Amino acid sequence: MEGHEMLRGGQKACYNHGFSAAEMKSLAALCDSFIPSVFAEEKDVDSFDLLSGSYNGVPDQVADVMRCRVKPVGVCFAKWVLWLLSTRFGTWLLCGSASFSPRFPYLQTFSQVSGSRRERILVDWSQGKRFTLLKFAFKLFKICCCFTFYTLVDDNGKNPSWQFIGYTPPNFQPSEKSQGKKPLDNGVIDLSSDQDLAAQFKGRGFTVSSEADSSGRSNWVLECDAVVVGSGSGGGVAAGTLAQAGYRVIVVEKGNYYARQDLSLLEGPSLQHMYDSGGILSTNDLKILIMAGSTVGGGSAINWSACIPTPPEKLTEWSQNYHLPLFATETYQTAMKTVCERLGVNDRCPKHSFQNTILREGCSKLGFTVHSVPRNSTQDHFCGSCCYGCPTGNKKGTDETWLVDAVNAGAIILTGCKADKVLTLPNKIGQKKNRATGVSVYTRTGTQIIIQASVTVASCGALQTPPLLRRSGLQNPNTGKNLRLHPVQMAWGYFPDGSGPAGKSYEGGIITTMCKHSGTINQTPAVGAGSFAALIPWTSGADMKSRMRKYSRTAHIFSLVGDQGSGTVMAEREIEYRICDGDRQKLTEGLARAVRILIAAGATEVGTHRSDGLRFSTCGASHEEIEEFIGKVASCNTMGKHREGNKIGQPWTPVCSAHQMGSCRMGQDPEAGAVDWKGESWEVEGLFVCDGSLLPTSLGVNPMITIQSIALCVSRHIVQSLDRNSVPPNKD
Questions:
Q1: CA–centroid distance for 491 within its chain
Q2: Structural contact between residues 126 and 548, judged by C-beta atoms closer than 8 angstroms
Q3: Which residues in 518-581 belong to E strands, given as ranges?
Q4: CA geometry: angle 356, 361, 367, nearest 5 deg
């Protein structure tokens, strides 16, 4: 199988997840409960029916997923639940009378309870009937068990369930061009293992030395003009702009570099190694699932290609209401044009995917206006796998554009290492108390690297930049607040073979169409088999398998709201967010519209991801019946203080986010924002922020073009700052 060894998947020879034998026995029983062998007298049983969640080492893989991707407090909670379930008393405590047996000793452990009773127990957990915390446990185990089962592959990159759910993994054949040298080979230094940095930097124009720390261990010291922490839409633009201006640039990236020829396009390993927290990142209450890139290129390497300019109404709002002059200037308009040209943005699409065709047809029948969505790829780029990287390099993320410019101009990209703190010294000349002198970085092997720089650029994204600044001692109250997530909820529609357009749900351009209406937008997502299993409602094992059999012909349309409410991210992976009433109302209206669009396009069955499995068969349904169902869809989302399913027995609908913004927003003064309109910290001279966290408010549309355009403007101000401070460009 082709691709980087970390992206190929396959079974591990041994696991170090740390779960005990008793805990693993409970976990195996949970896996078998979520995904049981299904026997039905009324139909033939095939091998998919016989597959169960404890098949072929799945429980060990689930435990490993939890250890690697779930926050430590979540892992401790999971282990505590599993330990209780391994005891008779603990099972009674968590499961109640369902654990009783008519025979002595009358109480059973969870693994001894019959499969049908275990399923009833899980349904009770999902509704929080016994303890509210068990709803959290249900979500955690359901997501990890179902996601793992449908993404785990053998050494040949195959999963035994795929043939039964209509999924065929992409069979990408690398071209001779893609098999050659990788675009960033000249600049990437992988620090996931120990490296002799002096040898790696030799002849590159950087100063490298080593010094011993207090324990006697030798650490590296690097000197450059600018250090950029992060390589996504903000960091990539900053690195390219600064390096092309002649300055010595070092980029720090905690993820790995996967070039086009490294990609496997397998959902499980791709999410694990290219997404923050392996694709299983959420708010603290598990109510919002968050997708964020963590690889060279950041979100631009794994996003869905949408390239929408900053809406004019946002430019007006930011320049007038937030008193940020940049957004009313020709400079910003020119920056957007430059960004679109560098990314090769075009809005032509001669062939739409299965999902986008459904969105277009449904909107046309209902009289809704649709817009073509520009993409940073050629018009014939019919790829549904760009969420796992682009194997042709056709999608122009920063790993194929700005970072290439940076490396060609002499920049270095350090991968597999994480910035710990921004380094500062007292500022004796300027108006600010301190000035930035670089960053301290730790590699995965524990080696510390001190990068000394004239300017420091924090481009870690809206979820990582605030924790970095707070670890560094910055205290502006806006740092970590005003987090916007563009909350998303999805509706689905099933189109049996022969009904609706040809194709499969996972094929073709991911977003090529948009319906914008009343403060929300409707678009189509990329939903892999594992993500589909993790998101769809679970009411029984048999129902779950029935839903999975329909996967390839189940279309999704999502509702996205430009949120007025906000959250906080004060520490790494500590995300607090609650959807405000106005946003939830708009989200609900968009969700109802998505259902209508799917019905109009000819779906024979529709539903949402509501936990009770609410769905509706459209065949022969009257207008009144359709409206009654849509009313039910809306009712759960807008039930006052219980709208998020907090009431016992109240169903809940999961929310997702793929856009994070605003947590270090620009402001006209320190009370209004964490940085000024040029992106420089109000507290520390020479420290700039250059990523999506700069946005004053949520954007309401896909933010890549806006982030890169702001980053280009900020980067040009950084160049001017270096010029003013007499840092000579490296022209050699």
A1: 19
A2: no
A3: 520-523, 554-561, 567-571, 574-577
A4: 120
Distance of CA 317 to CAs 155, 310, 442, 698, Å? 53, 11, 40, 11
Q: How far is CA 700 from CA 60, 328, 579, in A?
A: 41, 19, 15
Report residue 9 CA to chain centroid gap: 20
> Comparing C-alpha atoms, which of 148, 124, 160, 136 is closest to residue 75?
136
d(CA 530, CA 656): 15
What mean pLDDT is predicted for residues 60-64? 95
What is the amino acid identity at position 434? N
What CA–CA distances, in Å, run from 493 to 219, 355, 604? 56, 10, 7
Backbone torsions φ then ψ of 450, nearest 5 degrees? -100, 120
CB of 164 closer than 8 Å to CB of 549 = yes
Token duo for residue 650: 């109240």
For the full predicted model, state whether its pTM sits above 0.90.
Answer: yes
Question: How far from chain centre, in Å, is Cα 389?
Answer: 13
> What 8-state DSSP symbol labels residue 129?
S
- Residue among 68, 33, 37, 277 at smallest CA distance from 141: 33
> Pseudo-torsion of CA 61, 67, 70, 75, nearest 10°?
110
Which of 264, 719, 290 has the alpha carbon at shortest distance from 531?
Answer: 290
Per-residue buried b or exposed e for 533-542, using 16+ beta carbons within 10 Å of the residue's own CB? bbbbbbbbbe
Mean pLDDT of 685-712: 98
Q: Which of 527, 557, 494 is nearest to 360 (CA)?
A: 557
Maximum mean pLDDT: which of 131-140, 206-215, 461-470: 461-470
| Sequence-ordered alpha helix ranges (H) in 286-329 | 298-302, 312-316
> Residue 403 and residue 708: Cα distance in Å, rounded?
13
Judge whether 659 counts as a catalytic residue. Answer: yes
Q: Cα–chain-centroid distance for residue 121?
A: 31
> Length of the chain in residues, anyone?
732
Per-residue pLDDT reduced to its tens digit, 469-490 = 999 999 999 999 999 999 999 9
Distances (CA, A) of 188 to 182, 240, 250: 10, 14, 10
For residue 312, cis peptide bond before it (omega within 30 degrees of 0): no
Fill in the DSSP letter of residue 564: S
Pair of tokens at residue 463: 């979820």
Helix spans in 288-349 (H): 298-302, 312-316, 330-343
* Angle subtended by helix axes 58-69 and 21-34, to nearest 10: 100
Residue 718: helix, strand or coil by DSSP? Answer: helix
Q: Which residues pair with 107 in a beta bridge?
A: 100
pLDDT at 177 over 60: no
Beta-bridged to residue 43, according to DSSP, are none
Structure tokens at 125: 């957990």
The answer to whether residues 219 and 694 touch, using CB atoms and an 8 Å cutoff, is: no
Q: Do 392 and 174 meet the contact criterion of CB atoms below 8 Å apart?
A: no
Structure tokens at 193: 């293992």
pLDDT, tens digit, for every residue of 203-259?
Answer: 999 999 988 776 667 789 999 999 999 999 999 999 999 999 999 999 999 999 999
361: Cα separation from own chain's centroid? 29
